[in-house]
Amino acid sequence: MTSLGLPSTIQACLFDLDGVLTSTATVHAAAWKETFDAFLARREGPGFQPFDPVTDYDLYVDGMPRADGVRSFLGSRGIRLPEGSEDDPPELDTVQGLGNRKNALVLRKIKEVGVRAFPGSVRYVKAVREAGLRRAVVSSSANCQAVLAAAGIEDLFEVRIDGVVAAERHLPGKPHPDTFLAAAEALGTGPHQAAVFEDALAGMEAGRAGDFGYVVGVDRVGQADALRKHGADAVVTDLAQLLGESA
């Protein structure tokens, strides 16, 4: 293993955004909860089972494109909605409408509370850059570029494969490996020479499905065992640990 905590064969690092580089995962979880709880209350009345921002978030929406997250969570409750269209208003009870409602809430919350990059992640990415490894951000979020800019870390990455790029290229989201594979290709490396850094179970599965050279699970919520079970080669609570630093 190198001083970066990676096999010596790794030439590129592919980083998820929310929960790995920035603390916006909690913002996303809160926006999903507000969206789904309002929908469930309308549909089922005051006795509805609320969206759990830890368990439901990790199992059904974390790391997925918005529409996939809506389908995944509602499917877990036995609910199917019309697909709708991408320009559905947020108050419309369709897959796209609920997704647009969640996105509007995320943008509002980010504007209200700002975006913070994890200091340990910033130190790690800078160390990766200094070591001469290639660097990409891989995120299902259509707001990825704005979040990177708000956190002040956009210049640390050479390639960005996000929700906008995935839609343009018709790339399926995590747990499919296609977005990570696209990032590795854009950096001029194959999957065996690339490491994936993810906090989502769907991201672990994408790393395993793509046969990447190394998969690092970032455990921010106490799910280390689940990350390993879904494909992590190593699990840390902060990327600085890979540099030999304490979290």
From TrEMBL:
<dbReference type="InterPro" id="IPR051600">
    <property type="entry name" value="Beta-PGM-like"/>
</dbReference>
<keyword id="KW-0413">Isomerase</keyword>
<dbReference type="Pfam" id="PF00702">
    <property type="entry name" value="Hydrolase"/>
</dbReference>
<keyword id="KW-0378">Hydrolase</keyword>
<dbReference type="GO" id="GO:0016787">
    <property type="term" value="F:hydrolase activity"/>
</dbReference>
<dbReference type="InterPro" id="IPR023198">
    <property type="entry name" value="PGP-like_dom2"/>
</dbReference>
<protein>
    <recommendedName>
        <fullName>Beta-phosphoglucomutase</fullName>
        <ecNumber>5.4.2.6</ecNumber>
    </recommendedName>
</protein>
<dbReference type="InterPro" id="IPR010976">
    <property type="entry name" value="B-phosphoglucomutase_hydrolase"/>
</dbReference>
<keyword id="KW-0460">Magnesium</keyword>
<keyword id="KW-0119">Carbohydrate metabolism</keyword>
<comment type="similarity">
    <text>Belongs to the HAD-like hydrolase superfamily. CbbY/CbbZ/Gph/YieH family.</text>
</comment>
<dbReference type="InterPro" id="IPR023214">
    <property type="entry name" value="HAD_sf"/>
</dbReference>
<dbReference type="InterPro" id="IPR036412">
    <property type="entry name" value="HAD-like_sf"/>
</dbReference>
<dbReference type="InterPro" id="IPR006439">
    <property type="entry name" value="HAD-SF_hydro_IA"/>
</dbReference>
<keyword id="KW-0479">Metal-binding</keyword>
<keyword id="KW-0597">Phosphoprotein</keyword>
